[in-house]
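$ run holo --ligand "thymidine-5'-diphosphate" --emit tokens
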Amino acid sequence: MPPKDISEDGLTLKWPGLRWWPMHNEGFFICIEGLDKSGKTTQARLLERRLNSLGFKASYTTEPSQGEIGRFIRTHVLRGRKRIPAVAEALLFAIDRFDHAEREINPMLRQNVVVITDRYVYSSLAYQGAAGLDLQWIMEINKFAPIPDMAIYIDVPLGVLASRIKDYGSIMERMKIQRKAHSVYTRLVREGKLMPVDGNRSIEDVSRNILDLVLSRLRH
Ligand code: TYD
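-- output --
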């Protein structure tokens, strides 16, 4: 028997309209993306420190998150011997993202904090997309995630990264995976979804560049 329409009982159940990505009105949400060893963690941390010293309230956070699901991913997915199926990876990262948004990102944005996340949905597009998954489907399972105000991609040539990846910290750091993820990131840059920053310069030069870009939006 088909489920009874709730409105028949005089009750109308309205689902909130789902937008492609939910907007947020408070705070400022920045994500820093890049391949492994591109320097994004250093840059995200520096950005947090510099914004705070300029009087903004900025906070660094990361994905996989520090929550239980994020910790599960680090231990059982990234440090595992073999890659789990890409669909399972994408779903786990999406669940962690939901938890991350609920626990940390949204509450901080509501308090007008400048939230800087080290990796976000674009990492799922790059790494799980590189594993062959449909990018639209990855977006679909991440629909709940608040849309960033700025999404920055630290662009470092693959050859430079190869010399930095000496021992494989995680299963994602194999060059074949990095190469494929790089091509997805490049596509996202071309489509205007990520803002590229030349990462093949000194830490200080890259940091200044990112800070200038962010300040031009924050002081707008
Ligand atoms: P990374 O930033 O390298 O963390 P850490 O240096 O602390 O280990 O991220 C861990 C890996 O997780 C990285 O290789 C990319 C991968 N990843 C995905 O494959 N999909 C995702 O959605 C996210 C957030 C990360």
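-- notes --
The helical segments are 40-53, 68-78, 86-110, 121-130, 135-141, 158-164, 175-190, 203-218.
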